[in-house]
Amino acid sequence: MNVEGAISTIQKSVHLAREAVEEFWTDYKRKAEEGDSTTAADRCKPMVCGCIGPYGGMLFSGEEYKGNYIDKITEQDIIDCQRPRIEALVGAGLDYFALETIPVQKEAEVVSKLMREFPNLKTWVAFQCKDSGHTGHGEPFAGAVESVVRDGYIKYVGVNCCAPTYITPLLESIQKYRRDYSLQLVAYPNNGQVWEKASFETAGKFVGPDLMTGFASAVPKWVDLGTSIVGGCCQTAPKDIKVIRDLIDKLRKS
Fold first, then answer.
1. How far is residue 213's CA from residue 161's CA, in Å, rounded to a whole number?
2. How far apart are CA 56 and CA 61, in angstroms?
3. What phi, psi does 97 have (nearest 5°)?
4. By mean pLDDT, which of 144-148, 177-181, 212-216 is the weakest?
5. What is the distance of C-alpha 186 from the center of its chain?
6. Distance between terminal CA atoms of the chain?
7. Which residues contact 45 (CB under 8 A, 6 or more apart)?
8. By the 8 A CB rule, do 225 and 173 touch?
9. pLDDT tens-digit series, residues 152-162
10. Per DSSP, which regions of 12-67 are E strands?
11. pLDDT at 3 (0 to 100)
12. What is the H or E stretch that residue 239 is in?
């Protein structure tokens, strides 16, 4: 596939998402008019979010979970890699944009600055973390967050694609910055399983316990900590998202 074909495919994904939203919304409004009990008067129309992952994702080596590539590339390398992808997604029409699974502070800083070229687009930054206090590369999570929000442009920040057991302490560690910078937090972990192979080039599988059962019960705590965008990442399923949705609905009604 050439560059033009790649851009077309990226933009088609946004168009398909838009079509799905419109189809859902038309059906939802019809049900509401008919008095369907499964509808709610304050239901918001779904929005479309575009996202890009880290530079390491294209290395096909699992580097997106470690960030060790950061010392081998320049700031311009990151910009040259990510700007065309961002432009393609933004050009197709989005409501939100996500810079997600970012394992290293420096990369988050570079791409966050790049997003200033698109000032009318709401953007969130989600870090990939290896434990309850550090990014995948090893920087303190709180310091990494502060580095991308200090100038006031990024207002949504958080964590994704890490074990759900890490989420609460990670969110607790940035409460000062949430208050100081009026932030909205995001959290969408994976199910806690890990890849069994050292190399992503060979066949393998995810192993370990599925932690999603315990994950759901923690959602109210995350909301109390200021999380307004909650979901799931790798190895989560529609049934897991439904549990989260049901919990959020109960919180809104309480």
1. 16
2. 8
3. -135, 140
4. 212-216
5. 7
6. 51
7. 21, 25
8. no
9. 899 999 999 99
10. 49-52
11. 84
12. helix 238-253
